[in-house]
Design brief:
Elements lengths: L1 E6 L2 E6 L2 H12 L8 H6 L3 H13 L6 H9 L7 H5 L3 H10 L8 H7 L1 H11 L14 H10 L6 H19 L8
Antiparallel strand pairs: 1-2
Helix pairs in contact: 1-3, 7-8, 8-9, 8-10, 9-10
């Protein structure tokens, strides 16, 4: 049920729970007949929150224009919104990695989902010189890679492909002179 809230000096409706809000945005603003959205976005009291709502609606199937999402993300002050955006697909995760290389660590999960062949060599290379133990360091690049490989369902093509990609990247890393302890 929509809830009337005061946000700073503005009054706005907030739909709770969030999943319902995202679905309503998808159905009312991105499914024919569409309600006008531009004015609402311009008047939204919180730019980051409205950007988050758009990204979340896109994740629920709303056909939000890629350029609209990208321009809003570029103006957004909240780096945590880049990860959900990156789950949208290959071009989205590549764009996010190119725009914000400093947050690559936050985008590893969607990158492994969509572009594993591109991100695995980067993970292996970034692990060189990182002597932290894998069992207690969840953010260690090799730990993240290990968790991803192990999350492939045993006996499936997906599981075998994850191992093949990782093995090939590790061999290429060592053959190119990389640290054989890492590779």
């Amino acid at each position: 049920m929509p809830k009337l809230v005061r946000y700073r000096e503005a009054i706005a409706y907030v739909v709770i729970p969030q999943a319902l809000r995202e679905s309503l945005i998808r159905d009312k603003y991105f499914t024919a007949p569409r309600l006008p959205l531009a004015g609402l976005l311009a008047d939204a009291p919180d730019f980051d929150a409205s950007t988050e709502a758009l990204v979340s609606a896109a994740l629920r199937g709303a056909d939000v224009e890629s350029e609209q999402l990208r321009s809003r993300l570029a103006g957004c002050g909240n780096p945590r919104l880049w990860k959900p955006y990156s789950w949208l697909g290959v071009s989205e995760v590549r764009w996010a990695l190119n725009q914000c290389p400093h947050i690559t660590a936050h985008l590893i999960d969607p990158a492994l989902q969509w572009i594993p062949g591109e991100i695995i060599p980067q993970l292996i290379a970034s692990a060189a010189g990182d002597g932290r133990p894998l069992h207690s360091t969840l953010e260690h690049p090799l730990r993240q890679l290990e968790d991803w490989v192990k999350s492939g369902r045993p006996g499936t093509k997906n599981s075998v492909e994850r191992r093949r990609l990782t093995c090939n990247a590790a061999m290429a890393f060592v053959e190119s002179g990389g640290d054989d302890v890492v590779g």
